[in-house]
Amino acid sequence: MDTKLASSKLFSEISQLIETTKNQVAQKVNVALVILYWQIGIRINIEILRDKRAEYGEQIIKQLSSQLYQRYGRGFNERSLFRMVRFAKQFPEKEIVTTLVPIKMKNTLSCWNLIKAAFMLRNI
């Protein structure tokens, strides 16, 4: 076999291994983040809102989101925290979340798209 052809074939096979692994890692990270977001939503709902949308609770979320945003970035702004609370209220049992989220999907989705998919399944 020609060394150039062998090198090209080896490059192609290794590239495929890298791409497959990158996709698997991205999916696992997304699943872990969705579970993290659910846990944050549960904590906020139980500890701050106490299953109500009290005005003082909204102020605490605003302050908390400001602190989290400064440290961790845009995924923890006020809107995101309210999404996390809504997600946790919709799926109060962790077992449901851990079952629905790792649904085998062809393409890697963002965390919020995984959450949207879980909401769609919930509404079926």
Q: What is the makeup of the main sheet?
A: none
Topology, number of strands: 0
> Structural class from helices and strands?
mainly alpha
Give the domain tally. 1
In terms of DSSP E residues, the strand content is under 5%
In DSSP terms (H or I, runs of 4 or more residues), the helix count works out at 5
Using the alpha-carbon principal axes, give the shape.
Answer: elongated
Give the % helix: over 70%
Task: List the uncertain runs.
Answer: 104-108
Give me the strand/helix succession.
Answer: HHHHH
Q: What Rg is obtained from the alpha carbons, in whole angstroms?
A: 20 Å
What is the residue-averaged pLDDT? 81
Distance between the termini: 55 Å
Provide structural commentary.
This protein is mostly helical. The protein has one domain (7-122). The protein contains five helices and no strands. 15% of the residues are buried. Mean pLDDT is 81; it is low at 104-108.
Summary keywords:
124 residues
Summarize the entry for a quick read.
Helices cover 78% and strands 0% of the residues. It has five helices and no strands.
Task: Set down the secondary structure blueprint.
Layout: H1 3-49, H2 55-72, H3 78-90, H4 94-100, H5 111-122
Helix pairs in contact: 1-3, 1-5, 2-3
